[in-house]
Write a structure and sequence with these properties.
The protein is of the alpha/beta class. The chain folds into three domains: 6-108, Beta Barrel (OB fold (Dihydrolipoamide Acetyltransferase, E2P)); 110-270, P-loop containing nucleotide triphosphate hydrolases (Rossmann fold), CATH 3.40.50; 283-353, Ribonucleotide Reductase Protein R1, domain 1. The protein has helices spanning 6-10, 16-31, 70-78, 142-154, 171-185, 199-204, 225-233, 283-289, 291-297, 314-318, 321-353, 356-368, and strands at residues 43-50, 55-58, 63-68, 88-93, 99-104, 110-114, 120-125, 129-135, 158-164, 192-193, 214-218, 258-261, 267-270. The strands form three sheets. It has a six-stranded mixed beta sheet. The protein has a five-stranded mixed beta barrel with strand order 1-2-3-5-4. It has a two-stranded antiparallel sheet with strand order 6-7. A hairpin with a 4-residue loop joins strand 1 and strand 2 (55-58). Helix 3 runs antiparallel to helix 12 and helix 4 (142-154) crosses helix 11 (321-353). The radius of gyration is 22 Å and the shape is globular. The two termini are 18 Å apart. The relative contact order is 0.12. The protein binds guanosine-5'-triphosphate (GTP), magnesium ion (MG) and zinc ion. The site of guanosine-5'-triphosphate has 25 residues, from helix 7. Guanosine-5'-triphosphate (GTP) binds next to helix 7.
Length: 369
């Protein structure tokens, strides 16, 4: 492993906590028995983009296109995950000068979602703050926001709600939206109300934009994520697209995630809008994200109250009915996903028995030799 230039990496979002995590993981590796398979001349870089065949890496000075060692892809898949934008990785060059990603450092924070089949898809890694961008037009949807909050909190990331298109909304609409939001997710979430095209949006976000910080922009298509990226960058680095007049829906202008450096030293990850969002979360984490329900449940008459039709239910009394419905829906999904994880683990162990992993390792070694 080459020497770590902490100062250079800081410009691409290396925090002291991340650096500690990396060093710990490298030390553990050295303590392991010598493994001739391991590459030792890797450089620490950050994943700025992930494509089907290649990835873009940033070393703090410039970007490099790279490919991923098949055995890394496979070992991540065996753990039900994959590389994500924001990951810190070790990369090395082969005899032809081509870059290969060899290892992923365990992420400090990690956002993941599930698809309809329960498969996990990484969203971003090593993010400090998630800006949940939601328009004050027809995009405004509290159920969806609750889903995003679960996703973000489950990943160990701080959520900041950004209500966009304030310039186009009448003051009564803004007041009503803020009140609805407070009634649903409580006073702990203090939303920002912005015109994402205005430099004022960047000023409002200044507390989360310190040097070395990484932000990810999440929200539906057309919410204004790329517009905000451009405002923060002070340059038109991302394409933006108009929304449909009648329902404020975007046209999925952004199609892949990408990490960008901002003038003040922070990094931002722009993402494509997701139509249906399913957080990757277990029951306990989900309950923690709906802390109001969890604490009210202590006051239900029956200890095993399911807050459905039971008498003396403090949750039904104290929580907005739509919030409770949304919680129950998320709970059902989380249970179904846990099931599919177990099924997947069984499948993976069957593969291992068949020795495919060993075969792939041998092939990967040939590829870089
Ligand atoms: N008036 C106004 N228009 C905005 C604001 N934010 C975004 N827009 C417009 O909304 C449209 C969609 O903005 P984008 O930034 O492309 O949205 P996005 O979230 O990146 O969408 P996808 O890339 O499709 O996920 C563009 O026409 C923007 O100009 C805002 O605060 N005020
Ligand atoms: Mg976009
Ligand atoms: Zn109850």
């Amino acid at each position: 492993m080459n020497e770590i230039d902490a100062e250079r990496l800081r410009s691409i979002g290396m925090t002291p906590a991340c650096l500690q995590q990396v060093q710990r993981s490298l030390m553990e590796e050295n303590a392991e028995e010598f493994d001739a398979d391991r590459e030792t001349d890797g450089s620490l870089m950050r994943l700025a983009e992930v494509h089907r065949e290649t990835v873009q890496l940033h070393d703090g000075d410039r970007e490099h296109a790279a490919r991923v060692m098949p055995r890394l892809t496979r070992s991540l898949a065996e753990h039900g995950t994959a590389l994500a934008v924001g990951d810190w990785v070790l990369a090395g060059r082969d005899a032809h000068g081509a870059w290969w990603v060899q290892r992923r450092m365990p992420p400090l924070t990690h956002l993941a979602r599930r698809d309809a089949d329960g498969r996990r898809h990484p969203v971003a890694s090593n993010v400090d703050t998630a800006l949940l961008v939601m328009g004050l037009d027809d995009d405004f949807n509290l159920r969806r926001l609750e889903r995003y909050l679960v996703l973000v909190e489950a990943g160990g990331v701080l959520p900041v709600v950004v209500l966009s298109k304030a310039d186009a909304a009448p003051p009564e609409r803004i007041a009503q939206a803020l009140e609805q939001l407070r009634g649903r997710v409580g006073a702990a979430i203090e939303p920002l109300v912005v015109d994402t095209r205005s430099p004022d949006a960047a000023r409002q976000l200044a507390p989360w934009l310190g040097a070395g910080q990484t932000l990810v922009l999440l929200g539906s298509s057309g919410a204004g994520k790329s517009t905000l990226t451009n405002t923060l960058a002070g340059a038109p680095i991302q394409d933006t697209g108009a929304v449909r007049e009648h329902d404020s829906r975007g046209k999925h202008t952004t199609t892949s995630r990408s990490l960008h450096r901002l003038p003040g030293g922070a990094c931002v990850i722009d993402t494509p809008g997701l139509r249906a969002l399913r957080p990757d979360v277990d029951e306990a984490t989900l309950a923690a994200s709906f802390a109001d329900i969890e604490s009210l449940a202590l006051r239900c008459r029956f200890r095993d109250c399911r807050h459905a039709a039971e008498p003396g239910c403090a949750v039904r009394e104290g929580v907005a009915p739509d919030r409770l419905r949304n919680y129950h829906k998320l709970l059902r999904e989380a249970r179904r996903d846990t099931m599919s994880v177990l099924e997947r683990q069984r499948m993976v162990s069957e593969w291992k028995v068949r020795g495919r992993a060993g075969h792939a390792r041998a092939k990967a070694k040939r590829a870089v030799a």
